[in-house]
């Protein structure tokens, strides 16, 4: 299916799912699974996003990472479609961009784009490790420029597809590991 049409359908699905108790339950399962995952345990610097309602809730994960004394970085989306990961160490440093996503506002914060692990956001994933994002191309551009960075994603039951049901572009970069409530999919 055309990527744009699939993305709109998927966004509508996820917004409905976000109102259910099942979504919250799966968020908890996914949190538990990634916290027990060796590659997360071994990472010292972790990049992830401040989640929107229909995405997997990252706030409990961020708090756990702080307790584990990991450095947590959130991306800032730039005008030229590049991203910079900024150190996030205090909830009060958070602001909201015009797109409505949380970003670190503090100007004196550290940038680190060579992270040990990036937890990539997205709307849909397949067992072939294909990923469909929001459509900005921010992560595909970032990952193309930072080859060798480890990537993982948390996919709830509504985000995960056995087959890739949308058209994959040449610039789409697959995610190395997908964690679902039941399984791990490695590229
Ligand atoms: N929670 C979360 N944070 C995230 C992402 C995400 O998917 N989820 N991103 C994943 O990539 C990045 C931001 N993604 C974006 C995706 C699209 C547009 C966008 O369409 N911008 C339009 C204008 C929007 C407006 O003006 O309202 C544009 O720039 O033309 C912006 C940011 C970084 N932070
Ligand atoms: N490395 C790249 N260089 C140039 N253009 C790119 C690159 N990666 C993606 N694009 C372009 O950006 C646009 C959006 O890409 P795409 O639909 O894959 O976004 P997405 O992966 O869903 O979003 P995101 O990565 O922000 O979560 C497309 O037109 C795509 O061709």
Automatic annotation (TrEMBL):
It is an enzyme of class 6 (ligase). It catalyses: (6S)-5-formyl-5,6,7,8-tetrahydrofolate + ATP = (6R)-5,10-methenyltetrahydrofolate + ADP + phosphate. GO terms for biological process: folic acid-containing compound biosynthetic process; tetrahydrofolate interconversion. Its cofactor is Mg(2+). GO terms for molecular function: 5-formyltetrahydrofolate cyclo-ligase activity; ATP binding; metal ion binding. PANTHER family: 5-FORMYLTETRAHYDROFOLATE CYCLO-LIGASE (PTHR23407:SF1), ATPASE INHIBITOR/5-FORMYLTETRAHYDROFOLATE CYCLO-LIGASE (PTHR23407). This is 5-formyltetrahydrofolate cyclo-ligase. It comes from Lactobacillus gigeriorum DSM 23908 = CRBIP 24.85.
């Amino acid at each position: 299916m055309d990527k744009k049409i699939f993305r709109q359908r998927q966004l509508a699905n996820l917004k409905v799912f976000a109102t259910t108790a099942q979504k919250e339950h799966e968020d908890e399962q996914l949190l538990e699974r990634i916290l027990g995952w060796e590659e997360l345990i071994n990472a010292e610097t972790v990049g992830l996003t401040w989640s929107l309602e229909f995405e997997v809730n990252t706030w409990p994960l961020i708090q756990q990472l702080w307790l584990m004394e990991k450095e947590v970085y959130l991306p800032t989306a730039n005008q030229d479609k590049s991203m910079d990961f900024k150190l996030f160490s205090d909830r009060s440093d958070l602001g909201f961009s015009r797109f409505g996503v949380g970003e670190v506002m503090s100007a004196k914060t550290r940038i680190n784009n060579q992270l040990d692990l990036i937890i990539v956001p997205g709307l849909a994933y397949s067992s072939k490790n294909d990923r469909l994002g929001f459509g900005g191309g921010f992560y595909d551009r970032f990952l193309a420029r930072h080859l060798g960075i480890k990537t993982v994603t948390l996919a709830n039951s509504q985000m995960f597809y056995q087959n890739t049901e949308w058209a994959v572009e040449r610039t789409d970069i697959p995610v190395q590991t997908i964690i679902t409530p039941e399984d791990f999919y490695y590229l």
